[in-house]
Design brief:
alpha/beta; Rossmann fold; 2 domains; seven-stranded parallel β-sheet; 15% strand; globular; endoplasmic reticulum; Alpha-1,3/1,6-mannosyltransferase ALG2
C-alpha cells in the first residue's frame, strides 16, 4: 500500500507506560501518522505523569478504555488473566464506538479508508476483532500482530515449592495454548528482530502464523539527539566521565552487571567517574521497587557510594562523592542529555528480544557495550559501533570500560560515533520502520484474509475465562 493511500489505523496496546515495548508502539504510531494515516492508540492504562511525551502532549491520539471493571492484578498475581480481561473489555468498547461512528457518519464509498488494526504484546483481542469487527462496504480490513516475544516464555514457572509450581503450570497452560491460537487469527504477524522471529517459529511453528517477517524498532532521527547537545547544556556533574546503564528496573535486565563491572575498576580509575543506572520505574510494580533496593544494596556492599533521584533537579544536586546514581523514570529530554554526555552505554540484558536503548545510544554517537546474545547481535557491529561480550565475563566488561575511559583517542571515539549514527540512519530510523510497516500492510491488503474458523472457539474461551474469573472472585470473597 503506498503511503498516499490513507488508512484508519487502530493500535491496541495493554499499558502505555515507559519501556521498550511502549516506545516501539509510540514509534509505530508516529511512523504511520507521518505517512498520512489516521492513527489512534487504544490502551487500558496511560498515566500522563508516567508515559512518553507523545502520549500526553497531543502528538498522538490516545484513548483509554477497558480500565473500569477489571483490576490490573489480584493480590499481586493473575496478571495475564487480568490483562486479557481488560483487553477484552477495551475491545468491546472499541467495537461499540466504531459502530456508533459508522452509523452516524454520512460517508461515501470512495471516501472511506481501509481499517488496519495493529495489536502487540497481548493477542487476546485478535479473535474478537476478526470475528466481530465488520469492514465497511468495498473497504478492506486487516489485523497485524507485532510480536515482541512469546509471552509463555516470559512467565516465571519455577518459583516456590512443588505445589505452587504445579498450580502455575495448570494456570498457565490455557494461556499458553490461547496465545498461539489468538495470534493465528491475525492476517499477518511480524517480529521485532531475527532473534525473536526464530523463537516465534520454534514456539508456534510456521503453519499457524505463516511467514513471520521482521520490522525493526526505531528511533526518530529527525530530532536533535546527537552529541552536539553538549554545546547547549551545562556539563553534568563537573565534567565527570559518565558511564550509563538504561533499562527497566527488572531482575531479568541484570543491571547489577553494570555495577559489578564498574566496581572492577581500580579506585584510582574510578576517580572522576560516575555510573548512572537509569530507566523505567513504576512504584505500582513490586519488582521495580524491590530490584532498585537490591541494586542499591549490591553497590553499597561493594563499597560504592550511592544516591537515588526521582527528578532532574534532585539528580543534578547530588554530592560529588557519589559513585552510583540511580535515576527513576528519566524524562526523554534528560535521557538524551545523558546519552550525549556519557562515554559508554552498558547494556546488560541477556537474550534481549531487540533492545532499543543501544540504537538510541548509537544515534547519539555513544558506543555500546552489550551482551553477545539476542537483539544486540543485530544492532551492534563489534569494534565499529561498540562491543559484544559474555555477560558472565565481568572482567571483560571492566576491560572495555577502562579502554573507553583511558585508552581510546578522540579520533577513535569520533570514528565510532559516526559509524553508530550511520548504522541507525540506514537500518533503524523512523522512516525505515515506516517503510517496512507500509510493505507489510500492503501485503496484507493485497492478499485474501487469513482463514480463521474461530467464532465458536471464541465463545468457549470467553466461557472458560468467565469461569476462572468466577473462581477468583469466590476466593477473593472468602478472604473478606
Amino acid at each position: 500500500m503506498p503511503s498516499s493511500d490513507s488508512a484508519n489505523v487502530i493500535i491496541i496496546h495493554p499499558d502505555l507506560g515507559i519501556g521498550g515495548a511502549e516506545r516501539l508502539i509510540i514509534d509505530v504510531a508516529l511512523a504511520l501518522q507521518n505517512n498520512g494515516h489516521r492513527v489512534t492508540i487504544y490502551t487500558s492504562h496511560c498515566d500522563k505523569s508516567h508515559c512518553f511525551d507523545e502520549a500526553r502532549d497531543g502528538t498522538l491520539d490516545v484513548q483509554v478504555r477497558g480500565n473500569t471493571i477489571f483490576p490490573a492484578h489480584i493480590f499481586g498475581r493473575f496478571h495475564i488473566l487480568m490483562a486479557s480481561l481488560r483487553q477484552l473489555h477495551l475491545t468491546v468498547s472499541l467495537l461499540s464506538e466504531l459502530k456508533q461512528t459508522r452509523d452516524s457518519a454520512k460517508s461515501t464509498e470512495s471516501g472511506d479508508p481501509d481499517d488496519i488494526f495493529i495489536v502487540d504484546q497481548l493477542p487476546a483481542c485478535v479473535p474478537i476483532l476478526k470475528s466481530f469487527a465488520r469492514p465497511r462496504k468495498s473497504r478492506r480490513q486487516r489485523i497485524l500482530f507485532y510480536c515482541h516475544f512469546p509471552d509463555q516464555l516470559l512467565a516465571r514457572r519455577n518459583e516456590g515449592g512443588s505445589l505452587l509450581r504445579l498450580a502455575k503450570l495448570l494456570y498457565r497452560y490455557p494461556f499458553d495454548w490461547f496465545e498461539g491460537w489468538a495470534m493465528s487469527a491475525s492476517d499477518r504477524v511480524v517480529a521485532n528482530s531475527n532473534f525473536s522471529r526464530g523463537v516465534v517459529h520454534d514456539v508456534f511453528g510456521t503453519d499457524k502464523l505463516g511467514d513471520v517477517q521482521v520490522v525493526y524498532p526505531c528511533v526518530d532521527t529527525t530530532t536533535k539527539t546527537d552529541r552536539n547537545v553538549k554545546e547547549e547544556v551545562d556539563v553534568l556533574w563537573g565534567g565527570r566521565k559518565l558511564l550509563l546503564s538504561i533499562n527497566r528496573f527488572e531482575r531479568k535486565k541484570d543491571m547489577g552487571l553494570a555495577i559489578r563491572a564498574y566496581n572492577g575498576l581500580r579506585p584510582e580509575k574510578r576517580a572522576g567517574t560516575r555510573l548512572i543506572v537509569a530507566g523505567g520505574y513504576d512504584n505500582r510494580v513490586q519488582e521495580n521497587v524491590q530490584y532498585h533496593q537490591e541494586l542499591d544494596d549490591l553497590a553499597k556492599g561493594l563499597g560504592l557510594k550511592t544516591a537515588t533521584a526521582k527528578t532532574v533537579v534532585s539528580a543534578l544536586s547530588i554530592p560529588d562523592e557519589i559513585d552510583v546514581l540511580f535515576l527513576l523514570s528519566v524524562p526523554t529530554a534528560f535521557k538524551n542529555t545523558l546519552l550525549a554526555q556519557s562515554k559508554l552505554l552498558l547494556y546488560t540484558p541477556v537474550n534481549e528480544h531487540f533492545g532499543i536503548v543501544p540504537v538510541e545510544a548509537m544515534f547519539a554517537g555513544l558506543p555500546v557495550l552489550a551482551s553477545n546474545t539476542g537483539g544486540p547481535l543485530e544492532t551492534i557491529v563489534e569494534g565499529e559501533t561498540g562491543w559484544l561480550r559474555d555477560a558472565q565475563a565481568v572482567d571483560e566488561w571492566t576491560a572495555v570500560i577502562e579502554k573507553v575511559l583511558y585508552q581510546m583517542s578522540e579520533n577513535e571515539r569520533e570514528i565510532m560515533s559516526q559509524a553508530g549514527k550511520a548504522r541507525v540512519q540506514q537500518h533503524f530510523s523512523l522512516a525505515a520502520m515506516g517503510g517496512r510497516l507500509e510493505e507489510e500492510i500492503s501485503k496484507m491488503l493485497s492478499a485474501n484474509r487469513r482463514t480463521f474458523h474461530g467464532w465458536q472457539q471464541v465463545l468457549v474461551v470467553l466461557v472458560v475465562l468467565g469461569s476462572m474469573l468466577a473462581v477468583l472472585l469466590a476466593i477473593l470473597l472468602s478472604r473478606l
